[in-house]
Amino acid sequence: MSEPVLELQDVSKSYGGLRPLRIARLALREGERVALVGLDGPAAETLVNLVTGASLPDQGRVALFARDTASINDPEDWLSLLEHLGIVSARAVLLDDLTVAQNIATAYTLSIDPVSGDVMADVRRLAAEVGLDPDWLDRRVAESPVHVRSRCHLAKAMAMNPLLLVLEHANAFAPDDAPALACRVGDIARTRGLAVLVITAEDAFARAAADRVLTVSAATGELKERSGLRRFLPGA
Predict the structure, then answer these.
(1) If 155 and its partner were Cys, which of 1, 105, 126, 181 is the partner (CB 3.0–4.6 Å)?
(2) Whole-number Å distance between alpha carbons of 221 and 135
(3) Spatial separation of the C-alpha atoms in residues 30 and 33, rounded to whole Å
(4) Across the strands, what pairs with 62?
(5) Cα diameter, the chain
């Protein structure tokens, strides 16, 4: 069996909530799609920071791509590791005065005025993969509806061909587009063989985007399978 792309063992991290964030045991391997349901915004942000190594656990161990995040001391080494990680989060910044295409292109280069032909080809490929209407590519982000912004975030997360995709309350970007977005994430993950970690408060979004849906015990950090959830239907 392959090494987990993400592993958390006996993790505890204080973040200002009534209780610390606790994860007793989570191991995510290539091609697996797991959703954690029930973490609020601050807890989800804390978990994402632990996954990326931006913060370290108070107790326990976090390993990303078989590297213990506590052992990574060199900034360049850390940034190199993060190239294999894609994150979809409302905390990520889109530049309103740039076009949608230019925002996606910043995942590859800072030379975006104009976007070169080679990079534009990659942008169009990503737009098609994430279900973004190409007619929006030349429009400013400030003029774009929220569902276009959510697909722009997803395209940027996929640009560097990550091995692990993390979604932090991505359903909140555009609730009306959440069913289609969740199904699209599932399709991309199956096609690419991606590992996916979905952090959400929405049961249906979790089930549509992931194969396994887990709840976290706030007291112990134990993860339990959650079943019997309604699935989103494509196009619903």
Answers:
(1) 126
(2) 45
(3) 9
(4) 8
(5) 53
Which H or E element spans position 189?
Answer: helix 178-192
Please answer whether residues 148 and 118 qualify as being in contact, where contact means their C-beta atoms are separated by less than 8 angstroms.
no
pTM value?
Answer: 0.92
Cβ 22 vs Cβ 12: under 8 Å: yes
**Phi, psi values for residue 15, rounded to 5°:** -145, 10
Residue with tokens 């993790």: 11
The dihedrals phi and psi of 98, each to the nearest 5 degrees, come to -95, 160
Per-residue pLDDT band for 86 (boundaries 50, 70, 90) equals very high
* C-alpha dihedral sign at 203, 213, 155, 98: positive
Specify the residue for token string 């792309």: 5
Q: Which two tokens stand for residue 171?
A: 């359903």
Measure Cα distances from 152 to 3, 89, 106, 122, 128 in Å: 31, 11, 11, 13, 11
137-177 tens-digit pLDDT: 999 999 999 999 999 999 999 999 999 999 999 988 888 88
